[in-house]
Amino acid sequence: DEYRKKIEEKLTLDSEGRPFRMLIFRGTQKSSRKSNRLIDELRKEDAEALRNSITKTSRPRRLPKREARILDAPYLMEDYYSKVIDWGRNNVLAVALGPALFLWKWENGKVKKLLQVPGEDDYPTSVSWSHDAKTLAVGYMDSKLQLWDAETSKLVRNLEGHHRRVATSSWNHWNGHILTSGCKDKSIINHHVRVSNNVTSRIKAHSGEVCGLKCSSKSLHRFTDHCGGVKALAWSPHQVNVLATGGGKEDGCIKIWNVQKGTCIHSVDAKAQICGLEWNRHHKEILSGHGFSASGDGNKLCLKKIPQHDQSGRSPDGLTVATAGADETIRFWEAFGPSGDEDSVSHLAGLVSLKTSLIR
């Protein structure tokens, strides 16, 4: 008890033995500095801006009700097994119209004819930009596979090996000199475009035409869940081990695969031919282009139902999708909007950090 009394005296009495109280200092107008008031105002502005940003980004994203631009595309081939449109990293769209192949610049709308195939029985059936967007691989109905210089409009070389229509090709991401092509002769060929004997390997494991190819790195699996031709393939930009595939009219399903485990993660019955797949790299979404449907519910795009388009290609910025349809038009859709959440919040966080540092 004596000890407790001594402690209380020390805490409640001043040096002269008089009791004191602890008061809260609230300051006066005279003692408040203008700089402190300014910092308080800046913090209020940041808080308000952050609230507005959260409110703004929480609103549902609006999908386009119509196309942003339409191009006439006479003689565009209506063929499920061909890939006649590709959008390069140079922001140039390559499109085959009948026996001719054209290059269209997104920025200024300029059109250049790259090539014209002589004769009536031959025409381009597949186009694929290289990753540096300098070279265009063009496959043909009569089994040719050529490389064209897009800047000079000159033929670089012919790649031998196929014997029927070349329906698809894809450049290797890790070695820009390797081009893989698929053909109606049921074969897949890996070409080294810089050596005289271009065929480095040939794979014959399919029982039908190879009409869709997308290159990745490791893992080897055989997926047999589809019950129709598989043309549409797209690697996820969010997870490197995820692949989306779409089946033809006998199948009508979109399947998402884990290629490391060899398992099907998800399957969606679209009840229509899947002609093209494009991932949205700003959101975890996939856009599918649908063709023929026995139920009459085909010829559309999903995310959004848009009629009469079956092939697709994505712009380099990942925001705009180009579709080619049987009505001989190419349409551009601003379907993939950026999220905006991370940019706006990090920008505000930077401002708050900057302004707070003034009082350190």
From TrEMBL:
Biological processes annotated in GO: anaphase-promoting complex-dependent catabolic process; positive regulation of anaphase-promoting complex-dependent catabolic process; protein ubiquitination
Keyword Transcription regulation on entry: no
Domain Anaphase-promoting complex subunit 4-like WD40: start-end pairs: 114-172
GO cellular component: anaphase-promoting complex
WD repeats: 117-158, 223-267, 315-334
InterPro entries: Apc4-like_WD40_dom, Cdc20/Fizzy, WD40/YVTN_repeat-like_dom_sf, WD40_repeat_dom_sf, WD40_rpt
Protein's recorded name: Anaphase-promoting complex subunit 4-like WD40 domain-containing protein
Entry keywords, A to Z: Repeat, WD repeat
Short name of any one Pfam family annotated for the protein: ANAPC4_WD40
Single annotated GO MF: anaphase-promoting complex binding
